[in-house]
User: What shape does this take?
Amino acid sequence: MATLINVLLVVNAIIMVVFILLQSGKSAGLSGAISGGAEQLFGKQKARGVDYFLHRGTIVTGVLFFLLAFISVYVLQ
Assistant: This one.
């Protein structure tokens, strides 16, 4: 049981890293943060299409990662 949970945890972590790396950047770097990056940060921009899928996938895999980590600790004790 513990082995299965640990394997799922590693697979989930790999999928989460892929989702994060495939997302497009939302700022123009340090220069964008200094000169008006707040408009992009607090603006009403909704992700659509692939960006929406990657955003939701990152949230789901992040929550699943923490659940599997807690279950893994619980099973090992």
In short: The mean pLDDT is 82. The chain has one domain: 2-76. The two ends are 12 Å apart (CA to CA). Residues 2-76 form one domain.
